[in-house]
Amino acid sequence: MATPLLRLSVGQVLRSASAIVSRPLSGSHILRIDGCSHLKEAIRHGEGTESCDFNVGDHTWRLLCYPNGSNSKCRRHFAVYLKLVSDTEDEPLGKPVLLRDVGMHKFTHGDSWGFHDFICRKQLEKSEYLKDDRFAILCNVSIIT
């Protein structure tokens, strides 16, 4: 059993304190997609393209984008996934919060996590996000160590 206060023989009180502080390591990456209409025609459903690598918290990440959906059920949607590229022993625990809360996810090397129905293509085409056939995706990554 720990003793919080120790008394010296002369009556002085020694105090001890410690703290455990966990702060998330955070970073962001902006993926700009130019020529959205061409990309939609050039890439079939189930096929995707990748962002360049970016680093957050000693880990290397990449965004995976599927302009015609990542599977046959979501052909009319733009899909986005966050992928852990680096091979590391301590697997980061993440919480994707793109359009909806899906809880925590423990990433392993090569693992990806995201949304097969990130946004409906027709909705994207009518939205304020698509301007001059381009739009951007901001990906914020926070890692709890």
From TrEMBL:
The organism's taxonomic lineage, starting at the top: Eukaryota, Viridiplantae, Streptophyta, Embryophyta, Tracheophyta
Pfam entry (one): MATH_2
InterPro entries: BPM1-6, MATH/TRAF_dom, TRAF-like
Organism field: Setaria italica (Foxtail millet)
SUPFAM superfamilies named among the record's database cross-references: TRAF domain-like
Protein name: MATH domain-containing protein
PANTHER family: BTB/POZ AND MATH DOMAIN-CONTAINING PROTEIN 1, OS07G0655300 PROTEIN
GO biological process, one term: protein ubiquitination
Residue span(s) of domain MATH: 26-141
